Amino acid sequence: MLIITCPFCGPRDEAEFACGGEAHIARPLAENKISDAHFADYLFMRDNPKGLFLERWRHSAGCRRWFNVARDTVSHEIIEIYPMGSLPKKASPKAAYKASWRRDTAAEKAAVRSPNKAGGSK
Amino acid sequence: MANSSNSRPDFSGQAALAGIAGSSSDNPNGGDAGLVFREISHLGKLNLRGDKNLAAAIKAATGCPFPPKANQFQSAGERHVLWLGPDEYLILCEAGKEKQLEDTLASTTKSSQRYAITDVSDSLCALALSGPKTRAVLAKGCGLDLHPSYFPSGDCAQTLLALAGVTLMALADDEFIVICRTSFAPYIQRWLADAALEYGYQFVA
Amino acid sequence: MAFRTNASSAQPMTRSNTAARIDRNKPIEFTFDGRSYTGFAGDTLASALLANDVHLVGRSFKYHRPRGILSAGSEEPNALIRLGKGAYAEPNLRATQIEIFDGLYAESQNRTPSLKFDIGAINSVLGRFFPAGFYYKTFMWPAAMWMSYEHVIRHAAGLGKAAEDHNDPDRYEKTHAHCDILVAGGGAAGLMAAMQAAQSGARVILADEQNEFGGWLLGEANISIGGVPALVWVSAMLTDLAALPNVTLLPRTTVFGYMDHNYLTLNERVTDHLPTRPAHLPRQRLWKVRAKQVIIAQGAHERPLVFAGNDLPGVMLAGAVRTYINRYGVCPGRRAIVVCNNDDAYRTALDLYNAGADVVITDLRNDAKGPLITAARNAGIEILRGHAIIAAYGNQRVARVEIAPVDDSVTAISGDILHRDCDLISMSGGLSPAVHLHSQARGKLQWDGAKLCFRPSATHEPSFNIGACNASFDLATALKEAIRAGTKAAAATNHQTIALTAPDVVSANQNWKPLAAWKIPNGHGAGRGPKAFVDFQNDVTASDVSLAAREGYQSVEHLKRYTTTGMGTDQGKTSNINALAILADALGNEIPEVGTTTFRMPYTPSSIGAIAGRDIGDLFDPVRLTRMDAWHRANGAKFEHVGQWMRAWYYPKGDETIHEAVNREVKAARTTAGLLDASTLGKIDIRGRDAAEFLNRLYTNAWSKLGVGKCRYGLMLKDDGMVMDDGVTTRLGENHFHMTTTTGGAAGVLDWMEEWLQTEWPDLEVYLTSVTEQWAVATLSGPNAGKILQDAGIDFDLSPAEFPFMSMKEGHIGGLPARIFRISFTGELSYEINVAARHGLALWTHLMTAGKPHGITPYGTEAMHVLRAEKGFIIVGQETDGSVTPHDLGMDWIVSKAKSDFIGKRALARETMAYDNRKQLVGLLCSEPSTVIPEGAHAVLDPDQPMPMEMLGQVTSSYFSPNCGRSIAMAMLKGGHARKGQTVFFPMLDGTVLKAEIVDPVFFDPKGERIDG
Fold it and tell me: Cβ–Cβ of A16/B143 closer than 8 Å?
């Protein structure tokens, strides 16, 4: 059982948390029309990598807050924990974020309203 | 139009564990029971949402300073303010004082302050636990490190106790308050009595 | 057997006079296979049986061969025992670990009818016909016969017999524990490491599977540590450790699982060794330990030698024989042959000799030298160098052996065969470090070509391997390693300590490099000659392993599945290395290239009871009760589980059936009045400046213009457009709403809302608080509802003009403060009365009293379901299953076209959402009005079509409606909206076919004329 360090409550057993799956899937804004196929990237497509994965967790039995976790799915090493709405700072999670196929999708571009206002980080 | 002369409801109100009789089991090794516990009936409970700017209003309303750190509480007499989350606090107060506290808080808060306060007195049940085996009993169902050096008095935590979500407060080495959802209270009561069997227990109805 | 005269004889001849760990003043009576025996306090069942000269203790799994006691510890493959009687019986316990107590009752396993005469042993005679993979090869074809094959296989399969009564009467507990350093194994190294770590003040847990700490030292003679006999040193260490407040000593506790992030599971056998188990104590306790650092000191397992007949009772591991002599005062034979490829077995030879046995040493090596060899020679023990036992014979115990000279590589017999009589063989094939915990935690292994064993290399979790489990078999080396590990582990937990001085060890020097000899030649061709066993528990022979390799099972994992080697309760602790060495040999590969199978938890079998702990019976799952529960119970309600809640299902009067009671309740709610306990509905207090905007995004309909005091029904979708929950939300103030959810959906909906607020719209100022249990709710419904509220003392005007449908007012009932919602799930005039939960019971009894003259009738969840179905109201989770859109439900009216966005809006616009063959909600009227179509029944258009029939959809709700005077049903049918008026058929399991007409799903009061009473 993993120990996950809740950014607010500190280290707790995995049993107190719920995993929310892949992080950084931006929700297309309704005002930006995209095709069904592009919308499916947001709605249905999920990564399941062997190795480093950026995912969302919630401290469900504690403070109920969401946060992001960079975790190695093979070694179960937790590399970085960072707040919802922000990007990882450490080198390998940062690289994983940049390398994701999502960065080039129409769905992700449609999540942004204007250059200086970032979209959701869900 | 009201015609209530022939029957009026009972106003006294029922505690969460009203239907459960007191019980006990001797300490098999002799001496005092390892765990003594009871419900703190109708303890006032207010869920407060907002940021740290509420500190002055909280102090004015409850007399408690702001909890200095996450997962800690501050007390003033029978009143306690618990840090539950980055923008969430639980205020405990004397039975029946909830409304007064709410009003005081509202009157001392700046109009620009974002906050929300909700009475959850009946939603939550508080149990007072004491006895030399309090921590050992809790450890059977709680994954936190409850050693006094890691969970000293003044610490609180939302966590799991057996199969129920709870908030734990350490008042002293041998003294805790356990707060659970009211509908889970009978389960917690039964679980505590069962877990304390090897140390002896007393449940005070 | 020849030595015993009767059960009460004071001391059987096999007891030696060594200073043992038994109390000869405390005789203990026990029963094995119906016969009573005497042992001493401190004995295990195995040592006590050996003391009574009982060697035959079980039959093997496949061939039913007679088997004895191989080892003296948890690695035992043979001596599996069923302990206890009736409900307390437990199979497959190792006789080598069971501490005896007065009245202990044990039975051997896997024999019919008796241990000495077992008809299954015919398999042994036919053994040539039961090669590796026998079942796979034999029971393959024809496929149609599989069902009967399965019966044969199931009968043959399975080890031991579970208790007849499946309700285990014992108490088991679980507990969490935290420590800085967990030391797994309390032998010399474990004790030293624990002492070193504890000096620093770190919190230390030291666990050992045996009843006493000391590990293999308990079974040794002639070793001193720190100038005193080894066990005096152990005792002093224990005294010191026990005095430290930061140390927890756990004897009889097996560390059986090692998981991620240093989470370990321990099984403590608290009262297993007691004649009567105190009721207040658990029989066993599962410890769930989170350790910052782990020190593994598990020791090592001795390997058997693989020669013909090596499974006979009386063939034992050399280290075990030494343990029986020194720890239990039992000399397991009088005429012993010691066969070995290493120095260590010479210690056994000397101890056997000193215990009075005749001893011959058969050493596979022809160049052995050193102090132990010299000592044996000086004692006058016959040593046959370069010799091996090539076969052992005997009926139910070894009686004679064939010994032959072998070449240097032990692959061929190189001279004449000698014949010797014996009653004990002590064999040693070298030591295998117990790398189980290290490997469970995904530590790496490396092959040690000198010591011929796998040893830990890199660790994966923060841990250390010390002593024999690290292939540091030499005691002095192990103690130094322990001090280093203890110091480092303490430092890693921020506890500083000065390294202790390793105590001096005085023990004969020995060479720890055994001779590689994995399979001893028998002078016959491959697969011929008597069986030489590799895995005793699974009856896998050396030739089975070779055969599997020839047949292409060349991966060690395949070998395991095909031959079953390494399976069972011992998981191959004594057999794995021999098996893979023989496999490597057959493949012409090196051992490290073949590798090991995966080590998984548990290290030794652990009872399911300990894993369940107290999460059984009343404590299996929390049962949530409403504040009115006492009234329901007192008035004979039947209950149903809704999630964790217990809800009143119906209230039978007299000997009413459920059908009669529900009909009466449903009727009353439409003719007089019904009262429902609706307290379990989820309730969420929503506050904040952006509350209305949040609801706009959450629900499909619009919320901004909802007036204060007004209620609105809402449908919540997932972002894929599918219905996830519904409920009524009321505006209590400009920035304050009260949301209700389904009973089962309450927690999920709150989580869902928090997720969107925290992860997608953190800019919204909205605060959510669950108030489900803050309010007790009684729903009063029916034409007389208003009159009853009047009589109950409502303090405001109930007229529809003043208090219209879909509005909320705060007031008092008989003086009790209440929030009353005029909403309806029945279609009747209805009031949902919310009071502070502490007043729930008072409200309910007050309404029942006030309503008595008006025919008030309490109704349960079953009647509630019928009432809503009469009105065609859906239940989320009953009509919907996560694949249903509002359009599918015929609820387009609730989906706003004007709002720019809400959760699910974009998905509803997907092309596939408009397909006209989606399943859609319809009503059904069965052609037989008295017949209720079963829920879940599948509809077809043509009941005579060939199988498999084309399914149109399924019935989701189906009831008898007393108000319609006939059965009604709701269904989700493909293209259902366009099929109204069509007939569909429901083929039943019994061959009958039901017929129904597709209709609109509103069956009663379609115009909604009853809503104001």
Answer: yes
How far C737 CA lies from chain B's nearest CA (Å)? Answer: 12
Domains of chain A with bracketed CATH: 3-109 (3.30.2270.10)
C770 chain-B contacts, CB cut-off 8 A:
123
| Same fold yes or no, C172-300+433-506 and C682-770 | no
Please enumerate in sequence order all residues whose Cβ is within 8 A of that of B80, keeping only pairs 6 or more positions apart, or say none: B64, B73, B74, B91, B92, B169
- Count of CB atoms situated within 10 Å of the CB of C342: 27
Please report residues of B whose CB lies closer than 8 A to that of C772. Answer: 123
Domain with residue B109: its CATH number is 3.30.70.1520
Residues of chain B with pLDDT under 70: 1-7
Chain B residues within 8 A of A61 when measuring between CB atoms: 158-160, 165
Please give the sequence-ordered ranges of beta strands (E in DSSP) within C788-862, or none if there are none: 808-813, 816-821, 830-836, 856-858
Superfamily of domain C915-1013: Aminomethyltransferase beta-barrel domains (2.40.30.110)
Single-letter code of the amino acid located at C475: L
d(CA C821, CA B52): 36
Chain C CB contacts of B186 under 8 Å are: 623, 625
Q: Does B84 touch chain A (CB under 8 A)?
A: yes
pLDDT in tens, C847-866: 999 999 999 999 999 999 99
Rounded (5°) CA angle C890-C892-C898: 175
User: Of the candidates C937, C779, C956, C772, which has an alpha carbon nearest to the alpha carbon of residue C875?
Assistant: C956
Instruction: Examine the domain organization and report whether B159 and B179 are in the same domain.
Output: yes
Q: Among residues C534, C527, C637, C529, which one has the least CA distance to residue C582?
A: C534
Contact present, A30 and C906 (Cβ < 8 Å): yes
- At the fourth CATH level, the homologous superfamily of domain C172-300+433-506 is FAD/NAD(P)-binding domain (3.50.50.60)
User: What is the C-alpha to C-alpha distance for residues C528 and B78, in angstroms, rounded to an integer?
Assistant: 85
Question: Which B-chain residues 110-129 have CB contacts (< 8 A) with chain C?
Answer: 114-116, 118-124
- Residue pair C223/C505 in contact (Cβ under 8 Å)? The answer is yes
Q: What are phi and psi of C111, to 5 degrees?
A: -140, 145
**Residue C583 C-alpha, separation from nearest chain A C-alpha, in angstroms:** 30
Gap between the Cα atoms of A98 and C663, Å rounded: 64
Element (H, E) at C919: strand C919-926
pLDDT digits (tens, 9 = 90+) for C592-629: 999 888 899 999 999 999 999 999 999 999 999 999 99
Q: Are B72 and B80 in contact (CB under 8 A)?
A: no
- Report yes or no: C778 and C628 within 8 Å, Cβ to Cβ: yes
B9–C839 CB contact, under 8 Å = yes
pLDDT at C688: 95
Is-cis flag, bond preceding B86, omega within 30? no
Return the amino acid letter for A90: K
| Contact (CB<8Å) C761/A28 | no
Chain B residue numbers touching C767 (CB-CB < 8 A): 49-50, 87, 115-116
Decide if the complex's ipTM is over 0.90. Answer: yes
Q: CB C769 to CB B118 under 8 A?
A: yes
For residue C957, the surrounding DSSP H or E stretch is: strand C953-961
Dump the DSSP string for A17-80: -EEEEES--PPPPTTS---HHHHHHHHT-----SSEEEEEEE-TTTT--EEEEEEETTT--EEE
Quote the tokens at residue C138.
């034999």
Count CB neighbours of A51 within 10 A: 11
Torsion of CA C606, C611, C617, C621, to 10 degrees: -160
Domain that holds residue B59: 44-120
pLDDT, one tens digit per residue, over C940-991 is: 999 999 989 999 999 999 999 999 999 999 999 999 999 999 999 999 999 9
